[in-house]
Design a protein that fits this description.
Immunoglobulin-like; 2 domains; 4 helices; disordered C terminus; single chain; 5-stranded mixed beta sheet
Length: 262
């Protein structure tokens, strides 16, 4: 086989196609910034599948290109090619290898999913409401609502999400997490931000004419800054409640309920 007239051209073509495949993997910045613990695990699984696929891509492409060139019909040759039965052993091999690799990917995906969805006892709980075409974040423990998702760094966050109209999808690319938000049911999403910064939150499900502008921010803060924000937001809620008008005496209405935060 090593002395075959096909060996040299096949080796050269393998180097060329392989180099192009490896180059495009490293030269192009395919993935967004990592900002969560889950992102590293998901990216590892993604790159594992990419490199396994790249090996077979190079092999198939090289054989295909070489066969098109080396075994092309001569000009004017309109005869049928020789009848070839096939190779049972080869067919078994190229069936078993992909089946094995698929099983490996399934096992790895289950492990990654289990790690990503494991919840911590001290997680921050936030309720998310999706509606055309805004996200509303509610912190039920302190009665605060925000248009931004403000969360502390290095602490797990659990989002409990509902939709008030149509199906939405809550996606934070930097965290590599995404979950549908569906009317009538509650969905959950957990992740652990590990890098301070401001990251885009996108609706990844077409939800109407304003779908493209249904975006907000996930603001990851240092623990002290997050605590200060919570305290300030809670103080504002209390101040608004204290300033809410009360019903006049004798009106039968009693004390007015605190006004909801807008």
């Amino acid at each position: 086989m090593l002395n075959s007239r096909h060996t040299g051209p096949l080796a050269l073509l393998t180097l060329v196609v392989g180099a192009i495949t490896v180059a495009q993997a490293f030269v192009i910045d395919w993935l967004p910034e990592q900002a969560g613990e889950e992102a590293a695990r998901i990216d590892w699984l993604l790159w594992f599948m990419f490199w396994v696929s790249a090996v077979f891509f190079v092999l198939v492409t090289v054989v295909l290109l070489y066969c098109v060139w080396a075994f092309r019909a001569k000009p004017g040759d309109e005869t049928d090619g020789p009848p070839i039965h096939g190779n049972t052993r080869l067919e078994v091999v190229w069936t078993l290898i992909p089946a094995f690799l698929l099983a490996v990917v399934v096992v790895l995906a289950i492990v990654v999913l289990e790690d990503n969805e494991a919840t911590a006892a001290d997680r921050v709980k936030v309720e998310v409401i999706g509606e055309q075409f805004v996200w509303r974040m509610q912190y039920p423990e302190i009665g605060v609502e925000s248009g931004d998702l403000r969360i502390p760094v290095d602490r797990q966050v659990e989002l409990t999400m509902r939709a008030s109209d149509v199906i939405h999808s809550f996606w934070v690319p930097a965290m590599r997490v995404k979950q549908d938000v569906v009317p009538g049911i509650t969905t959950d999403l957990v992740f652990t931000p590990d890098k301070v910064g401001t990251y885009e939150v996108v609706c990844a499900e077409v939800c109407g004419v304003g779908h493209g502008v249904m975006r907000t921010r996930a603001i990851v803060m240092e623990p002290d800054a997050y605590a200060e924000w919570l305290a300030a937001a809670q103080a504002k809620v209390r101040a608004d409640a204290d300033q809410a008008p009360t019903a006049p005496a004798g009106d039968g209405g009693g004390d007015a309920e605190p006004a909801e935060e807008g």
